[in-house]
Design goal:
Rossmann fold; alpha/beta; six-stranded parallel sheet; elongated
């Protein structure tokens, strides 16, 4: 089934751009696959100006982040790490915040949208770990986690949010250093990816002989720009995704398939080629 994928990439060294579709087999849902439920992620503007929304967000994230932290890499993540070790993959640019590529053993990873594991102060730019903030929130909200989980369970979202509705009595905390607003170190809708991070990602595409997109609908420019850039470089662009994408017009090959199966097949084919 994956002969076309293997043939299109040949022995080229590739940069891989991944989206939420690669993590669904790890129990983290995506936003835009054909069977995904409607989701309305928080925007940066909403987070900053609306205290009630911010309270709801932190209450949900207080549960959601630990489920994401407990998630484990699936066969697709492990295949990419194996391909990197063999030299076939030079780098991974991921739009995901779940750290699963790093957990799988990939070493050269750009977390384009940040990760769930850090929190930033919007005033003084101080960074703390999400685990440190968890201790503070637990102290401010004793018993909240056990009570809410027992009452309604937890459904995780791709950005470590949840569908939680019981949030009115949740107490937020502010930056220890300056009292400023704390926000997950994640690029929200309405924010821009830091320019140095974008430049580093472009440099990785420059090194590659092909661009492989895995599990992204490329619905936002954050990821689509690298496909357009690769097209200008006239290198092969292969897209593996469930459903169509905004980058299909630029693709050498599109494959409607699951990432775990496709990447495992690609890793097996590359390992069978003599060095």
């Amino acid at each position: 089934m994956f002969d076309r994928l293997i043939g299109a990439l040949g022995d080229r060294r590739m940069c891989v751009l991944t989206g939420a579709g690669i993590s669904t087999d790890s129990g983290i849902p995506d936003y835009r696959s054909p069977n995904s439920p409607p989701r309305n992620p928080v925007t940066y503007q909403q987070f900053v100006i609306d205290p009630a929304l911010r309270r709801r967000y932190w209450a949900r994230n207080h549960l959601g982040w630990r489920h994401m932290d407990a998630a484990r890499p699936n066969a697709g993540h492990r295949a990419l790490a194996e391909l990197e070790r063999s030299g076939a993959v030079i780098s991974v640019i991921t739009q995901n915040v779940d750290l699963l590529h790093t957990k799988a053993g990939s070493r050269r990873v750009i977390d384009l949208h940040g990760t769930y594991a850090q929190v930033r102060c919007l005033s003084c730019e101080a960074l703390i770990s999400r685990a440190t903030l968890d201790d503070r929130l637990e102290h401010a909200n004793p018993g909240f986690t056990d009570t809410v989980v027992a009452a309604q369970g937890v459904e995780i979202a791709p950005d470590a949010d949840t569908s939680l509705t019981i949030t009115e009595h949740f107490r937020m905390v502010d930056c220890d250093a300056c009292g400023g607003l704390l926000k997950p170190d994640i690029v929200y809708f309405g924010e821009s990816v830091p320019k140095p991070r974008v430049a580093a990602a472009y440099a990785l595409v420059d090194e590659a002989e092909a661009l492989l997109v895995a599990g992204s609908s490329l619905a936002v420019m954050s990821g689509l720009r690298f496909v357009r850039y690769a097209a200008k470089r006239e290198i092969p662009i292969i897209i593996v995704n469930r459903g169509t994408t905004r980058g299909d017009e630029f693709a050498t090959l599109t494959l409607d398939a699951g990432c775990s199966e496709a990447l495992t097949a690609l890793a097996a084919a590359r390992s069978a080629v003599p060095a």
